[in-house]
Amino acid sequence: MRPLVPKGRITRRSMTCLCFTHSLTQTHSLPRATTFSSSLHHNRNPLFQFFSGILRSPIRNFSTNFRGGPTPVASSSALMADFDADSVTYLTQREAAEIDETLMGPLGFSVDQLMELAGLSVAASISEVYKPSEYSRVLTICGPGNNGGDGLVAARHLHHFGYKPFVCYPKRTPKPLYAGLVTQLEALSIPFLSVEELPSDISNDFDILVDAMFGFSFHGSPRPPFDDLIQRLVSLHDNNAIGQKRSVIVSVDIPSGWHVEEGDVDGTGIKPDMLVSLTAPKLGAKKFVGPHHFLGGRFVPPAIAEKYKLILPPYPGASMCVRIGKPPRIDISALRENYISPEFLEEQVEADPINQFRKWFDEAMAAGLKEPNAMALSTVGKDAKPSSRMVLLKGLDNDGFVWYTNYESRKARELSENPQASLLFYWDGLNRQVRVEGPVQKVSEEESEQYFHSRPRGSQIGAIVSKQSSVVPGRHVLYQEYKELEQKYADGSLIPKPNWGGYRLTPQLFEFWQGQKSRLHDRLQYTPHEINGQRLWKVERLAP
């Protein structure tokens, strides 16, 4: 049987990645419930003590619970369940300036480091909401200061994310840092447009307008040409026709022209669709009423968080941005994706559908998709009521597709009553799905036994504990039985296989689906037929 997941290897590179910030904040020896304030007192790392001594006033209990160790991966919306917009810390202009000075002073950050992280955060936030398949043309309007530099960096990352960025940078800063950012964009053939070259109605030529003109340090009234550029962004909302798609506005840190602490004072300013606050949101961001508020700039050290009592949402996984507040309500009927994929033609496919499946499976693995062996298994019992559930493919050979389960589960009962099933694989990142249908039979007892004992011991015990599909009075019952069995087999003795084993579906039909533009999807179906006593597969195209 062909193994589904190739064995990996730990490289020297992966073993030698040491993180300075981890060494400063490591508190694994502390109890899980230790507060951040307490961890500061207990952390004996001399570098940590040096920096925290510089930064902190007398330590006070801090409500956000920073813990040692890695942050678990979770979705942005899940992480924000307890972090609505009102519970997050908002900075005054003075506090924002002090934090920047501290980052670039005793903490050793450079302007270009912070600018790179900020620009990447902006690009990541945009890609979270506005996909390049629908919003490809991006105009970034950059001011002469650091906010403009963030915009230049964001434009570079957006190019690498698959967007088509343009840059309007009317007042260029004559410093090597900014000149280097311009050179980087020019090397990518990203067009620079003067104010005079901008179309009269910028909404016709661009899908996204990035407002990176002025940041939190700006004072006074905008001067030409930025006053006119701001008004052109303001007019987008005034001229928006009902039902007509318009450009969306993304403001970096603070919408240009807004008061940093009081927001859009007279209500005549830019109305961005997205605001990407950096480091922490500024007080003026409380007046933001658009649908998408993100936080970026994942570089706040714990000592700064303690000094300013920052309550910020945790970033999901390795993301450079996190949503503040709840995502907007979505009209489900309006959710759609216009797929962009290479053509999937009859003359390109393998003659044997098993080989074609292996080819697509290998490409799903290479694309780094999560659990590409996950499949929906559909069965029907004698009551003629279908049921579906997700299971994991654990074997593939010329005889078919293999998975394992409890032989007393609902799916097992339905397969005993009607030994026919359908499998469905869906690989979102590749716009592909594969449907397989056919009869099902149990694999040999030896095959089930061998696979059962190849599993982690915890999974073997879990299979005994779980009388799958039966009613249990509570989770505590499962935990208790698990602990008892864990102790029983703590000596490493063989764990007996319960009434549990594998099934093999022998394919009688394959359908390979590839998403395409305007719903003109590719659907190629394989069905068996005999020619001169030889079993072959016929390939037919189905209407999408």
UniProtKB/TrEMBL annotation:
Cofactor binding comment, as recorded: Binds 1 potassium ion per subunit.
Metabolic or biological pathway: Cofactor metabolism; pyridoxal 5'-phosphate salvage; pyridoxal 5'-phosphate from pyridoxine 5'-phosphate: step 1/1; Cofactor metabolism; pyridoxal 5'-phosphate salvage; pyridoxal 5'-phosphate from pyridoxamine 5'-phosphate: step 1/1
EC number: 5.1.99.6
Keywords: Flavoprotein, FMN, Isomerase, Metal-binding, NAD, Nucleotide-binding, Oxidoreductase, Potassium, Pyridoxine biosynthesis
InterPro entries: Pyridox_Oxase (IPR000659), Pyridox_Oxase_CS (IPR019740), Pyridox_Oxase_N (IPR011576), Pyridoxamine_oxidase_dimer_C (IPR019576), Split_barrel_FMN-bd (IPR012349), YjeF_N_dom (IPR004443), YjeF_N_dom_sf (IPR036652)
MF-aspect GO terms: FMN binding; metal ion binding; NAD(P)HX epimerase activity; pyridoxamine phosphate oxidase activity
Catalysed reactions, as listed in the record: (6R)-NADHX = (6S)-NADHX; (6R)-NADPHX = (6S)-NADPHX
The YjeF N-terminal domain, residue ranges: 96-312
Group of enzyme by EC: isomerase
Signal peptide: none
PROSITE patterns: PYRIDOX_OXIDASE, YJEF_N
Binding site for (6S)-NADPHX: 146-150, 215-221, 253
Necessary cofactors: FMN; K(+)
Positions that bind K(+): 147, 211, 256
Single GO biological process annotation from the record: pyridoxine biosynthetic process
Family: Belongs to the NnrE/AIBP family.
Purpose of the protein: Catalyzes the epimerization of the S- and R-forms of NAD(P)HX, a damaged form of NAD(P)H that is a result of enzymatic or heat-dependent hydration. This is a prerequisite for the S-specific NAD(P)H-hydrate dehydratase to allow the repair of both epimers of NAD(P)HX.
Binding partners and assembly: Homodimer.
PANTHER family reported for this sequence: PYRIDOXINE-5'-PHOSPHATE OXIDASE (PTHR10851:SF0), PYRIDOXINE-5-PHOSPHATE OXIDASE (PTHR10851)
Name by which UniProt lists this protein: NAD(P)H-hydrate epimerase
Organism: Sphenostylis stenocarpa
